[in-house]
């Protein structure tokens, strides 16, 4: 039987989609653990939340040991864990395959794929005890189809999509649903400068490909909340593009 979410862990919660997800969940009465690399940004997110009892921890999702300790402590202090939103991700270099720097390739895979795995591996023992738990991962439209200059980022997100479906296959009958959200281009504080620096023709082309315009973090967060909530109790293993129509043409 589906039940209301009481507690959740959100990685990459210091800005952008992660911050919007935290606000959406807090507005729905969920107690949160906010995970990210920069404590100051996490505190800014914390200050924007409704409700109380939320926690922050500055830890890199590639550090499996520290991440496990943080999630264990939160779950043990709050009588369990009901949801994980594995949102932390990076795109340090936009490049074609022959031009991808080895360090950028390795860092992209460590954060975008290893970080999701570390988060899930730490959360699953607690989620199994919930009886009605949910994992939502963040893929990308770049993981659904080849895109220009995404030779590291795209494959990392394609792997997240497959990983999420593997989670659904392994754990749905044990009470953990797993779904993957694949955003199109979402305007955040981090990428706004890059967007503004594009030649006008390229920016117009990007905007035109998104039939409903470029996205905002709250638009993605509302879908993530739905997938995590009891309203999506018959959904698992789904890969859902939230991209303003980008992927339909």
* Helix-strand string: EHEHEHEHEHEHHHE
Structural class comes to alpha/beta
Number of domain units: 1
Instruction: List how many beta strands DSSP finds.
Output: 7
Rg is 17 Å
- Specify the overall morphology: globular
Overall CATH architecture: 3-Layer(aba) Sandwich
Low-confidence stretches at least 5 residues in length (pLDDT < 50)?
A: none
CATH superfamily: NAD(P)-binding Rossmann-like Domain
Strand content: 5-15%
Query: Largest sheet at a glance?
Result: 7 strands, parallel
Strand order of the largest sheet: 3-2-1-4-5-6-7
Helical residues, percent: 40-55%
CATH class annotation:
Alpha Beta
Describe the structure.
- The protein is of the alpha/beta class and 249 residues long.
- It has one domain (7-188, 216-240): Rossmann fold (3-Layer(aba) Sandwich), CATH 3.40.50.
- It is 44% helix and 15% strand.
- The chain has eight helices and seven strands.
- Strand 4, helix 4 and strand 5 form a beta-alpha-beta unit.
- The longest helix has 26 residues, at 102-127.
- The termini are far apart.
- The relative contact order is 0.15.
């Amino acid at each position: 039987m589906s039940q209301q979410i009481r507690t959740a862990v959100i990685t990459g919660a210091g800005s952008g989609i992660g911050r919007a997800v935290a606000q959406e969940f807090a507005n729905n009465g969920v107690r949160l653990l906010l995970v990210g690399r920069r404590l100051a940004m996490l505190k800014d997110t914390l200050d924007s939340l409704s409700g109380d009892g939320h926690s922050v921890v500055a830890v890199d999702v590639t550090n499996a040991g520290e991440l496990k300790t943080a999630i264990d402590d939160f779950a043990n202090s709050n009588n369990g864990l009901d949801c994980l939103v594995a949102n932390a991700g990076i795109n340090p270099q936009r490049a074609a395959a022959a031009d991808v720097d080895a360090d950028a390739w390795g860092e992209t895979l460590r954060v975008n794929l290893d970080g999701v795995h570390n988060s899930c591996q730490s959360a699953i023992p607690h989620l199994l005890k919930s009886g009605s738990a949910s994992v939502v991962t963040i893929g990308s439209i770049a993981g659904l189809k080849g895109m220009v200059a995404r030779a590291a980022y795209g494959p990392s997100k394609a792997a997240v999509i497959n990983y999420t479906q593997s989670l659904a296959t392994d754990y749905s009958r044990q009470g953990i649903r797993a779904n993957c959200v694949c955003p199109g281009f979402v305007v955040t504080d981090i990428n706004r400068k890059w967007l503004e620096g594009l030649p006008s023709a390229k920016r117009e082309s990007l905007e035109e490909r998104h039939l409903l315009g470029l996205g905002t973090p709250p638009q993605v967060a509302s879908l993530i909340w739905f997938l995590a909530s009891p309203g999506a109790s018959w959904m698992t293993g789904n890969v859902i593009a939230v991209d303003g129509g980008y992927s339909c043409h």
